Structure formats: structure tokens, C-alpha cells
Amino acid sequence: MKCNAIEKPLMQEISIEQIFNLDLPLTNEKDGAVFAHKFKGDLVAMTTSLIVAKYFDKRHDNVIQAIKNLDCSEEFNALNFQAVKYVDEKGEKRPMYRMTRDGFMFLVMGFTGKKAAKFKERFISLFNKMHSWINQRVKLSSNQHLLNDAIQFVELQRGEKDEHSHARENTLIYMIALGSSKKKWLRVNGYAPDDDIRAHLSESQLELLDLLTSENAVMFKLGLSYRERESRLKDTALFFWAKQQRKAA
């Protein structure tokens, strides 16, 4: 299999608990068995040959060779596998593959035994969860555009521009959804202030932000006051979390 090599930093050890905790927002190779990664221009759910070797109790060089020996088309290979480099504990560069869900399934279909079957099932669950998380994140991005359009619409009607509108409206939404502004939330949770906060939120948090953003866009365009919108958004958030608790019960 021919792929371009990309240097990557050392991957941290992944605990066995992480693959079973389906509530974790696993969004990169340092966090979990399945992570979100930009591949072929899109954010997709992926895992790696290192992770597969770890959980399926196989030597990594054997997993690498198995990927190279897969009887798949060049098109399938290009769309589902990415050859990269990582730095091992000795500081040496080693080969590794990232793979999509389809690539993972093609690779592990030949893995047999009860343990393999158990981990196949868990990985499928994680891929499904990550796919849902990615969709929710994309949806939030789309509704952010709706809010931006609503702000521009009102500014055109009023004939004046409010340079603080975007920051104020987004702070309102994050204060209600997370209890703090984006910058404060990132700082309190140990992330860099310029990090994309969406990469660190759970699917439920993203869903609530999406809901509040779309509702605020409509209310802003209709001319409701800040206090009116704040009150209604708080009611929406309370209802949302009450519904989440009923689902979990």
C-alpha cells in the first residue's frame, strides 16, 4: 500500500477504561481508541494501527504488514488508510496507519475469537458515537452561520453596526450552556485559550449549544430584547437537561 508519510508526535498510552467509557468526547489520538481527525478535507472518525495492535493483542509490525497485504482496491486504500509516522519512546520515528471505520472493519474481519469479537463490538460502538459527535459539531457550525446572518440582518435594518454583537451573543449562549464564557471554560479545564472549544465538548453539550444558537438566531432577528432572549434560552436549557436526565434514568 502506498501512502504519504506524515510525522506525528509520540502517542500517549491509552487506558483500557477509555474504550469502554462511551461518554468521553474522544477527539484525538492522545485521548482515545477512536478519535476525530481531518482526512481528505473532512472531519471523520478514525483509529490507528497502534491502537488496533494494543486492543487486539497483536504485534504492531504484524498489524502494519496485515494492512499492506489487504486485498483491497487502490481507491478503497486511499479513502480509508493514511500512512503516517509517530515517535516512539526511544525518540525514533516509526510507521503507523490511521484508518476510517471502513478501513478498520476491512482489517479486523479476519480477527477471530471471543476477545476479538468483544473488541470489534466496542470499536463499532465508538465509531458510531464519534460519527454522531462529528455530525453534531458540524450542525453547530451551520447554526453559527444562522446567528451571524441574523446579526447582519438586524444591523442592516437599523443602519448601524454593533461591533460587539457577535461576542455578546456567543457569550450569552455559552454562559447558559456551560456556565461560563468560552475562554474561561477552556482555562478552567486546562486548555489553551485559542483552542477550538467544540473539540472538547460532549455530544450533549454540543447539542445544547446548537439548540440555543438556532433559537437565539430566530429571536434576535425578531427583535426580542437581550433579557427576553436570555430568559427563554435559560428555560430551553433547563428543559433540555431535564430531558437528558429522563433518558438516563
Report a brief summary of the structure:
This protein has 249 residues and is an alpha+beta fold. Helix content is 58%, strand content 11%. Strands 1-2-4-3 form a four-stranded antiparallel beta sheet.
Can you offer a commentary on this structure?
- There is one protein chain.
- This protein is an alpha+beta fold.
- It is 58% helix and 11% strand.
- It is built from ten helices and four strands, in the order αββαααββαααααα.
- It has helices at residues 16-20, 49-55, 60-68, 74-80, 101-108, 114-158, 165-178, 182-188, 203-222, 226-248, and strands at residues 35-39, 42-48, 81-87, 93-100.
- Strands 1-2-4-3 form a four-stranded antiparallel sheet.
- β3 and β4 (93-100) form a beta hairpin.
- α6 (114-158) packs parallel to α9 and α7 (165-178) runs parallel beside α10.
- The N and C termini lie far apart (48 Å).
First-residue to last-residue Cα separation: 48 Å
Radius of gyration, in Å, reads 22 Å
Overall residue-averaged pLDDT value: 83
Which strand-content bin applies to the residues? 5-15%
Number of helices: 10
Give the low-pLDDT segments: 1-29
Strands, count = 4
What is the ordering of alpha helices and beta strands? HEEHHHEEHHHHHH
